[in-house]
Every structure is written in C-alpha cells, then in structure tokens.
Amino acid sequence: MASTGPHRARLNSPYGWTASFDDSQPYIQVDLGETKMVTGVVTQGKPGEDQWVRSYTIQYQGQDVGSISRLGTTSVKWDTYSEGVDGEPTTKWWRSLNTIIFKVFTGNSDSDTPVKHYLKKPICTRYLKICPTPGDWHNACSMRLEILGYNPEDKLDNTYLLVTDADVKFNPDAAKALLDITARDPAVGAVCARTHPLGTGAVAWYQIFDYAIGHWLNKCANNVLGTVLCCPGCFSVYRAKAVKNTLPTYCTHVTKANEFLIKDMGEDRWLCTLMTFDEFFKQRRRWLPSTVANLVLMIQKWQTMVKNNNNISRLFILYQLLLLFSTLIGPGTCCLLVSGGLNYAYGVSVTVSMVLLVLTSVAYAMICLYTSQNFQLQMAQVLTFVFAIVMAAVTVGTAREVVEGLSGPPPLPTDAPTPDPDALVLPVPVSTIYFLTIIAIFIVTALLHPTEFFCLIHGIWYLFCLPSGYLLLTIYSICNLNDRSWGTREGKTVGSGKSWTEIWWSFVDAMRRCCNCGPTQEVEDQNAEEIQSEPPTPTQAKPPPTPLVEDPAEEEEEAADKPKRKKGFGAVAFSIGQLGRKGWFKPRTGQSMARRATRKQSAWRRSLLDTDKLSTAMWLPAEFKDRYLNSFLQHGYDDTTFIAGMSDGDLEFIGVTKIHRPALLREIDKLSEYQIDIKVPETVEEWLDMIGLEKYNDKFVYEGYDVTSLVNIEEQQIRENLGINKAAHVKRMLIALSKLRHPSELDERIDKVKKVVSKLTTQKMENVSQDHVRYRENRFWAKLRNKCIKQDYGVFSQNVGLKEQLEELRNSWLIILAVSNALWLTLILTLAQQANLQLLGTNPLGLVFLSVFGCIIVIQFLAMLVHRVWSLMHLLARVKYPWQRWEDDVTVPTPDPGADGQTKTSDVKAKMMTINETAEEEVYDNPMVETDDQPVYDDPNTL
C-alpha cells in the first residue's frame, strides 16, 4: 500500500495520512514553524475507509537541539512524553530512579469520531512526532490530527501586572479602567493612573497641586505627542511582554556612574501619605537627577528610538529637548522672577536683589557640599520659609505689574532715547500677556477636570514654594548626586551623630556638672556602670540578677524602706544613709524572669520571637564572630530583633570596617522586621517587657516615670537621666515611644490581620521536598534574585574608581548648571539695560524665553484638550446600557479554534479579582486560573 502524504493529515480533512505498508515503525512529524507550548492532541481515522490508529505515543524535540557529530551532521535528540505515578508529569526525581512511564494515548475506534487528549504537562517545542504503536492499528496506519497549544508570546501579551504601593488606596474600578486601555491597544506596554496625595500639612498641599499639574499637562502631553516616559509604581498596569523586553537591560549590574542614576535611583516612586519636608527633599533628590539622566539618554539615542518606536517622532524629541532646556535654566529663571517681583513690590534694585539671590544660592551649594544631610535639610527649611515670605511680596508685585500693564504702557523715562515711530509696540506688555495666559490655561484645565477643580486652590502654596522647588531643591539634588542612599527607606540612625543643638547643650550640661551647679547623678552613673560592665549575652542560660520587686506582699513590707519616687523629671536629694542602702529591691528569680518575659505580649510578637529571634553569637557569620561580636554586644545588639534594620551608618558606628559592611548588610536584609504594637500599656513595667528592655525597669522606677510621663521622654533624657547609652537600646526605646498611643481604626485592622496571619500554619518553600512544585519555584526565584534583583550593597564604596566617577559626574553637572545659569542671567540682565534693543516692549532674549516657555505650556494645553476627548470616549464606552445588569463580569475576546482549524473569536467571561476588607473574602473566580491540582487547558488554541 502506498503512503499518503502527511500534508493531508489535518483534522476534518477529506483525505488523511497513511504510512507505508512495509514501515514497521511509522510516525508523522509536525513542524510548528516556531517554538510553541503544546497542550494536547486531537486524532481521527481516515475518512471513507475503515482505517485508524488505536494507540500512539508522542515524541518531541527539546530546546537543546543536539550537537554536531564528527561527520558534520546534526544528531537530534527526541524525548518521549512520559508521566509518573498516578498520571503526574515526570520529574527529574522520577527519572533518576528509572521509573519513567511513557504515556500511551488511546487512539480512535472509528474513522470519523475525533478523540482529544490534554497533556498534564505542556511541551515547549517546535518539532513533534506522533508515533503509532507498532501493529496497533485497524487495517492500516492512517490518521488525521490537530495539535493544540498556544504561543508563549501571546500569553505574555494578555498577562498584566498591577503594581502599587502599600499606602495607596484604590478600588477595583480603577484597575479595570487601566485594563481597558491596555486591552484596546496591543502596542501599549504600560499605563498609569491619576494619583492624589493624601494627608495634611504644607508638603501635602504642595504635592496636591504638583501632582495635578503633572498629570493634567505634562503626562497628557507625553501621551498625546509620543509616549509617557514614567509609569510610577504607586498605581500602574504593565503588560508582561513589555516588562520581559526591558528586564534584560535593567537587571544588569551597575558599572558606570551614569547607569547608577538611570537604573538604581529612579525606578521607584514612593508616594507616602505621611511625607515630611525632609522625606520630600530626599525623594526628589533621587527623582530629579534620574529624570534628567534618562531624558538625556533618550535625546542622545533619538535616532534609534524614532526608528524602533512608532509613537516617538522627531517633534516629540524636540519637545523633550525644550523641557530639558527649561529644567536647566530653572534656577536662574526663578531668581529673575523673585528679583522682578521685589522690584515692583518694594522698588528694590534688580542688581542688588540678584546679587543677594546668587550669594544665597552659592552659600547653600557650599552647605550641601561640605555639611551633613541633617544640616542641609535644616537650612533648606529655613530658606524655604524666608523665600515663602519673599514670594508673598513677589505675588503682590507681579499683580501690580499686571494691573499696570492692562491700564496701558508705562511712560518712558526722561533720559530714554526717542523710540522709533515705526517700531511695533503692543498695547499690553508681553510679560502681562504671558502671566494672564498661564492663569487662563490653569483655570480652563481645572474646569475640564471638574472633580479635581479644587486642586487649583493649592496653587497658592505651590507659588510660595516656587524658589524652594526650582532653586533649593535643584541645588540640593545636584550637590548630593553622589549620595547612593534612597533617603526615604532608611530609618533614623541613633548614635551615629548629633545635631549642633545637642552638642551645644551637652557642653553646657558638662560645664554645669563640673561647676556643681546642679544635682549630681552618682546613683544613675553607678547603676549604669553595673549594667554595662558585663553586657549580658543572649546565649547565657540564666540572666544576671537585676534588682526588682516581684511579690506584692514583699512590696508592702519594704515600702517603708524604699525611697520615694521622683516627681516628673526633676531630681530628688536623698540622705547619705538612703544612698548607701543596697536592699531596696529583691533580685528576680529564674521563674520570675520567665513569667515576666511571656506576660502581656501580643500573639504577633510571640510568633516573631519564637520563629526569628537568634542571639548575635548564633547569627553572626563565623568569619566575623571573633572580630565584631563584642562590638555588637557593647552597643546593645544582643539578638536579631535589635540587628534587623541596621544601616550602613549603624555598622560604621559600631566599628565594622568598610570592606565587611556589604556582607553583613546582605545578612541583615534577610531578617524580619521587629514589630512593636501600637498601644498604651497599663504600667511602665509592661511596656518595657513588651519591647524587650525589661532590664531597665529599675531605672524607670527610680526616676519616677509612669505611663503618662513616657510620651515626654526625649533622647537626651534617655541617655542622661536614665543612663541608657547603648545605641540599639536607645533606638528601640525611641521607636517604642513613637508607638505609645491609642490605636486608631486602621491600627486595629492591621492588628487583626496580624493575629490572623500568626495563627496560620506556614512552611518555608525551601524546606519542602525536592519533587514538590514549591521547591522548584523557590529555587527559581532564588536564582533570579541572586542574578538580577540582588541589591548592590556599597557597590561604589568598594570600587574606588566607580565612586570617583560618581563624584566627577556630580562636579560636571554642577559646572554645567552654574555656567548655563550664569550665562542666562548675564544675558538677560545686560539686555534689559539696553533700551534701544527692545522688541515688543522687552529685550530679545527675554522674548525668546517667553516664547519657549509659552510654547511649552500651549503645547501641553492643546494636548490636554485632545486627552480630555479620549477620556470622554473612554468614559462613555464604560457606561453600561440601562437594560444590562450591573455585574463585575468583563467580556474578553480570546481565540477559539474552529472546526476547520481556523481561529475565530468567542467570548469568555472572566470575573475580575475583587479585594474585600478581610483576607478571607478575596475571590479568584476565573476559570483560566492555574492551580497545583489541574492544568489550564480548558479551551486551548489550535496552532
């Protein structure tokens, strides 16, 4: 019997494939054209003839194509699809025990009925073989078939990642709106939402207007003209395929200073609802250099981007170039604005005010270069307050200028040259037209965003803080460009340094004690020496006895002999006999210590201590134990609950050398954060037990502290009055003092979730058996983290060359900023004095400046109008018909294989994930969700 070609073997074909009669091991090979994920096979017999295959196996060619033999031919390796016990897919563990069970699929029993088989484990291959079992066919080895599966890239196209911060509040409708945009256009790689800063205070009010203008104008212009250049992590949706395409670039380690700014200092957008002035400056210190660096990189590679991205045009690159130019001369322009306003408000000479502003800017730059971060931020706060007062006067002066401009052109000075009668003179000054245009654009923009109109009111705070945002913040960011820390993620380092006020008062207190001008602290110093002479190690089986009364009956008996507690924070003088007494308190027994250690602790903290607490001697790596163990213990880092959260500055303070700090930071990063409950304890003793500092209870009793007086304790009083000087203990106490308040509703909800989590039975993925899917998943993520995501601790501190590169880059940026603004101010001020060079009532360079900035704002306004139309269309498209039920179901078109093998469209309803108030009520009602029990091949695609 002659064979029939395999090209006729498609499902439902009027023909079919028939193997040669003398072929003892027939097979049909399928070339899928490219690598596909095969999920199943459908077979039929030969139509019109009594021929079919009863059973068959599947062979596939793995991703390792083979090797080249000595003769130059390719030796291809074929694997047979196999399954383990109970039909589970074969793993390497089963293969190692030689228990491979090749899967034999049941074939057909007639010529026309299709038989479908789904694979328990998908096959990633391009070449596939269907191998009929030798001799197990009816009349002849004939069949028709279809391969089921999908393209992995198609799956990435329809997979989306919702990224958000922990402090962002959103509802499911917001996520659905973002998904609408990505589903509408396959070319969209990411889409971000409009974010609103929460909280109160001047910084929050400033951010409300700042974020409003950024979204209303800047992001809309980028979206309409080209592409949005930043989708912040506070609330955005990313297409998985877009993330996959960019990961190879951004997962590489930093080797150059400019790469550090582009990759490691700008990918995060930490929108904190409780942001303070210092945190705001630290955050923007990262954003500004990173934004400028990425913008410069895009302009440098504009030809490649225009060629590869259809959304980026030459006009869009020109627009970004204008933005870069305006950012560069922003400080000088701000100085001109302040100087001109003071001239109109108080008649201050422009030259005098400009000299003062330049000297102030240079002085603050010197402060940022040669002083500590805390002092820089303190001076920034002072200058911000001063500039806010100045801007109030500038606002009045600018308003006066606008009013005078509307009333007519000002009279020319008597010594001015006679103007040319043919010169073009506008009835209203150009500056007045510019200011009125900006105000009108802002008002119209706010009216087109009716739900956000009141954001415009906060523009007054934005105006007052204009010099701070465009002058001080720019100087602070550029001068600290070599600062590798994030600023908003580091906790307060206790003991690493004191402010100048603390140093001054410490000096005054020392002089007072030397002159015997105040009460002595001999008792406190003696107790402090007793406690710190032999620092207890957590590895000791029995803690040293500490004077403390445990038995209430004994407390009554000894009440007469006990000294009276101090009132408030003042000192009390005792007689010499009282000072000499040593038997005030009874030493604690081992049972008493054990009872107190477990008393009145939350379930969350108990679970933390039971699972994560290790002594420093057990935690510290062996190579560092002999060298640094005593340093850790002397500064109070007795166990991992104190060590967790240590920063590079903390390690430096306790004496860890620079070369060893990165390794210790990697180990510290693995520790769980120590949790302190937000509550008001009944007694000081309970509070100290709760935070693990019960050994200081005697000092608090002696000093007369009660619960109500705890909230007034400051760091200086902890060190001097209580004699607590260990850095870790002081840090723990300061953090605990900040948690001394009655829990709010949100705190109670958080505590409720913690209690629920603490009751769950958990198991680390690395501890499961090696044949379990969770073990393989843990190994995958561990490799990915170590290769791509692992933080480069101290990368610039270890490599002197890279550190010098970062400092050189900072110096270069400072020179560029200083030279460009100096040239800009010199040209503007010089041309302003030349009345014969006036054009339209102003100097030519000033007219160019107004034209550039005016062109930018007009472009953004027009783009905003287009974007508003798009938003209206999107809103109307999401409105449900009156007769349609209001459900959470979303209709998603997916490919569906037809009977003829062609792909057609069918509607599959998938409910969106809804996050309710409690963790138990989270519902994942999607039939296409993959679980550990069954594969996701309910409706596979035909290749």
TrEMBL record:
Domain SAM per the UniProt entry, residue ranges: 679-743
Membrane topology: Multi-pass membrane protein
EC number: 2.4.1.16
Coiled-coil ranges (or none): none
The organism's place on the tree of life at top rank: Eukaryota
Enzyme class: transferase
Alphabetically ordered keywords of this record: Glycosyltransferase, Membrane, Transferase, Transmembrane, Transmembrane helix
Domain spans labelled F5/8 type C: 1-150
Family matches, as SMART domains: FA58C (SM00231), SAM (SM00454)
GO molecular function: chitin synthase activity
SUPFAM superfamilies for this protein: Galactose-binding domain-like, Nucleotide-diphospho-sugar transferases, SAM/Pointed domain
Membrane-spanning intervals of the chain: 315-339, 345-370, 382-403, 423-448, 460-478, 813-832, 844-866
GO cellular component: membrane
Entries under PANTHER family matching the protein: CHITIN SYNTHASE, CHITIN SYNTHASE 7
This protein's name: chitin synthase
Source taxonomy: Eukaryota, Metazoa, Chordata, Cephalochordata, Leptocardii
